[in-house]
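lol ok so funny story. i was supposed to be doing the assay writeup but got distracted and ended up predicting the structure for this chain instead. priorities right. anyway since i did it might as well share w the group, maybe its usefull for someone
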Amino acid sequence: MSAFDRNDTSVLGRWWWTVDRWTLASIGVLVAAGALLTLAASPPVATRLGHDSFFFVRRQFAFLPIAAAVMIAVSMMTPRGVRRLAVAGLVGGILLLIATYFWGVEIKGARRWIDLHGISIQASEFVKPCFAVVAAWLFAAQRLHTRIPGNAIAIALYLAIVVLLVTQPDVGMTFVVSAVWFCQFFLAGLNIFWVAALGAAGLGALCAGYFLLPHFASRIDRFLDPSTGDNFQVSTAMDAFMNGGLMGRGPGEGTVKAALPDAHADFVFAVAGEEFGFIACLALVGLFAFVVLRGFSRLMAERNPFVLIAASGLVIQFGLQAIINMASTLNLMPPKGMTLPFISYGGSSLVAMALNVGMLMALTRRRVGTEPL
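and the output, tada:
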């Protein structure tokens, strides 16, 4: 029995009957799985770093209600409200990206985080969903033949963000932002000539990155030929999947998490494989696939170009980040240092992904004719 009557005209009542409750439920299951895996994977890492066992657990659980509040609040917005929030978020995110050059904390050779009284903020996580929505607005404005030079502004913004990300350096984030932006540009009606030109430019950028960024070249070399360098994390992750088998060793019974430096973050999928087995991992993959396919299905009858392009970008971003993390863990591609949405440890990633999904649910709500776009 529903908590809200169909005739309920309150804000919560209208939200409940217009939001995609299947997506909401799927995200809830992913959040619960993430909480369980944080409990399983983070204590050995915390102990190894000199903290008490539940150090990362407490920090992650403190962000869970914040993320839930952000997702629900944003999902109640109109498309116009989402657009305004994205513009404000993008401006703030770009300013924080610039601030990392002056006050950022360097970790493993990259300056991506700003420390605020013990809380690390990764600005690029918030730039991703906000830029996807702003770029969609600009592409839609160009498509609707307004006086706004949408394509030109979108290209300029993209180049500025890529420069800021590459110089941190953050190749993985640059790849995700670029892939989403290109897909949105394609959906907006990009000429086939420019599709080929941008594709060639992307390949050129990858080649340039290989020769200009030593850490990027090292990851590719180690992926192609493991004997050329240290592949400890990837090989240990593969051992975890083999140890787990079909049903897993049981909650808390895994052993490789004690050796994996990023068992609670980038390689949490390996912990899931060892302790809960192949079937549980397949269920996680199914949940991510369901959210992506459900998002696209809600857009099949969409006629508003802004909503179509923005929601598509957010769905692609969500799915692509999950694919990159799981493929890296399974040694199907070079490791990218990308978190698994709602599963990996990380406050910035958790809240930013909640913002992403909140925007997606707001844009895919069943709107009445009088609701502003």
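The beta strands are 104-107, 110-116, 119-122. The longest helix spans residues 268-298.
back to the writeup now i swear
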